[in-house]
Amino acid sequence: MSYALNEVEATAKRAARGAGYDWGLAEEAAKAARWLCAQGLDGAAVLAGVLDAGFAAGLPAHVPQDLQGDWLAQAPLCPLASGAALSDCAARLLQAPLKAGPVFRPAMILPFAAMAARQIGVCVTVEGEGFQAVTDGIGLRCEGALPDTAAQLTIRAAGSLASANPNCTRAEPEEAAWAVLNRFAHKTYAPATEESRRLGAGAGLSDND
Amino acid sequence: MSDIARRDPDRVMRLARLGSLHQSRLSFMRVLTRRMARENWSFARPKFDIDAKGVGVAVYTATGPARTYSLIAFAHDLPPEMRSDRVIATAWDATFTLFDGVPTDADIARLAKNVPYQEAGRVDEKSLSVSRANRSVRLWAHFVDALSQGRQPDPAQVEAVGYLMRTTAVYGSGKLGAADREAIADRPELSTPFQAEMLSVYLTRVFVRDLVEHMARAKGGDQAVPLAPGTARRLGIGNSTGLGMAPYIVNHPVLFNNWIMAREEAIARVRSVETATPEAADFFRRMLRRSELSAARWHSEHPVQLEKLAGLAKDLEALAAWVAADDLLGNRPWDRLIRWSEDALGLEGQELAASLILEPYAELVDGLSDCMADTNKDAFIIDGAMPVARVRELIMNSFGWALELDWSARENCARAWYVSEEKLEPRMGERFEEPIADYEQPLAPARDAAAAHAALAGWDADAPVAAFLLHHPEHRHTVRRAQMSQAAPYGEIRSNTISDRVLPIDMLRAKLSFFGATHFDPRSDRWVRICMYAGAPYPEDLTTANADLWVYPEADQ
Q1: Which chain A positions have a beta carbon within 8 Å of B173's beta carbon?
Q2: Which residue in A88, A153, B147, B489 could disulfide with B466, CB within 3.0 to 4.6 Å?
Q3: Which domain of life is it from (chain B) (predicted)?
């Protein structure tokens, strides 16, 4: 089924929150999923994979331990929290490339590389074994196949984008992944009670007159 | 002499004031009708297949310089017990979609299987909005009876209700599969916010007039008469708006800022006018008199609104007296008026005066409607290099008032906003009486700002905020909002949105006033009825002479 990108964003935000991420990261997860869909990639499927990994429950173990230097860790890095940190540290890419790894679902790093590119005004290249992706912030060119986990990524302020994919205005997520997002989103909904039905939306004077 | 500055956000962004805003030259309905008249849009009704029971489909088209938009209206025969304005309803008297272009029969057949079911159906990117409406039962029956018997409806009943149908939701921007705002935002005719939705309601009003005449003919045959044009003109489209709309202005701080800032800039420009012409002064006086008429037709049964209406009546008297005693010509007349109003009038009167002084100055004001969309998508991106001290300062600017509040006191956090499982719609509940705190939505920016400000206190003032956020992802959304406030000084509501005294209807009114709604009639502390397009010319009568000031009733109407 075809979905509006706003539907992807709204569902992704609720899903990330339902999976246990704080609201700020849920907002970023939503924009990231939307951005991937706008590139013609299945952002919903990428996000569903990330949420299923369950990093949110122990997030401190899955983020860079120190923003200085390279971000090399024992446990796989969560691409949402680490991606957000990458965007936050965009300026450092102008000084030197950043190595990070292992990174779970490196496709989810790409929207954050795009946010970094928009901030520093040059293309950002994300490279791992078997693939190379370049973004100018708006578009994306990706060569090779993105692995489920990248042992190490090299992220640098470099590259150019002549043949970016055209931005898509609709998303066609894989149904199973969409169902996963909805399953997580459901955890943010308060079960209905008689009281909430009666009061929550604000009953008052008659509405049928 | 220097220009008058815009009003301080600390003054403007209190909920009590936002809940007293009035429509203005910048209202989205007026922006639309001005444009359609200026560009000489043409209108047609290529289809009206509705039977004697009032069931069928109609299509209305609106054609501007570059494109045609079509309202597809599905009319239903709704049993009375199923009629509800609540968002939990599952059937309506009429359902609509605004179609991008002219629909084929195949398009209509596809939409007929979806639009009548609203949230339970799906549309695609050819739909720009999806909406529904219910009849005002009393007024509808009276109109059909009267017209079918060759009589015009009783003017007193028309005035008491104001509309034959009220919409209960107008969905846009990607909802239910419709086109995203981003897909149409670069079209000049839709660049001002909510133009597609406002066009849909404008055409809905035509459909409702045509339908009631059709039903009267079906009932009365040759005896039936058409609706007198003056009565038709008085009719607006009602709207019932519940809590679902309140979070919108919190969730879109840059967009909301742009609305408020456009109006504040307009007010500042007009206050800076050194000398008014006699024509401008006279124009203002006429609009003030017509506002008095509009206020006299504003009814509500809600105690809070009754008190506000009594206050507004007094304010209007005081304003009339002040205006009668002043020539409104020299020494920055509009600034003098606003300064006087700040001490002499209540919030309703102050904000009415602020909107009214804009009326004589189309050339200073109307262009600002081009600045009301949110085109700054990068405002979302956090600047991680910003020093901790600067983030604290930004929080202090917007939420200084909130830092001292005891946020653990029950009265200060009595409410929580949540989304219900049943209808996936925002609701507000009692934090200490219902099991909802675990499901709380981030709609208390002031509380969250106070928490982030305190957490930042332990950090090196010069450290980049990125390091703080790595360890405190729970404050990311607050840091983002704080940074947005640099470009959006009017983006934050400067009142407590979860206190035991919060009135969500204030948030609804702030938004609806920018649509151009009038006659706010709260039905509880969390839903409100309004009227849209009352007094507006119908498409066949729309000219540049009547496209703008229709919102102010004239004495002979």
Answers
A1: 4, 6
A2: A88
A3: Bacteria
pLDDT in tens, B211-249: 999 999 999 999 999 999 999 999 999 998 888 888 999
Q: Is residue A113 part of a domain?
A: yes
pLDDT (tens digit, 9 = 90+) per residue, B78-96? 888 888 877 778 899 999 9
| Closest residue on chain B to A56 (Cα) | B473
Within the 372-391 window of chain B, which residues sit less than 8 Å (CB to CB) from chain A?
378, 380-385
How far is Cα of residue A29 from the mean position of the Cα atoms in its chain?
A: 4
ipTM, interface predicted TM-score of the complex: 0.96
Q: What is the DSSP letter of B187?
A: S
Laid out side by side, the sheet with B528-532 consists of B42-50, B56-63, B68-75, B94-100, B127-135, B163-172, B236-241, B528-532, B518-522
Q: Where does the pLDDT of residue A163 fall: very low under 50, low under 70, confident under 90, or very high at 90 and above?
A: low
Q: With cut-offs at 50, 70 and 90, classify the pLDDT of residue A198.
A: low
Name every chain A residue with its beta carbon within 8 A of the beta carbon of B424: 189
Q: β-pairing, B42-50 with B68-75?
A: unpaired
Confidence of residue B377 (pLDDT cuts 50, 70, 90): confident
Q: How many domains does chain A have?
A: 1
Dihedral sign computed on CA atoms, order B383, B389, B392, B393: negative
Q: Are strands B94-100 and B68-75 parallel, antiparallel or unpaired?
A: antiparallel
β pairing state of A3-4 and A170-171: antiparallel
- Residue B49 pairs with which residues in a beta bridge? B57
Domain limits for position A112? 3-164+171-183
First to last CA, chain B: 43
Q: Is residue A192 part of a domain?
A: no
For range B190-213, the mean pLDDT: 98
- Residue A90 falls inside a structural domain: yes
Q: Whole-angstrom Cα distance, residue B376 to residue B355?
A: 27
Indicate yes or no: CB of A88 within 8 angstroms of CB of B378. Answer: no
| B329 inside 8 A of chain A by CB | no
Structural domain contains residue A191 = no
- Type of residue numbered B491: G
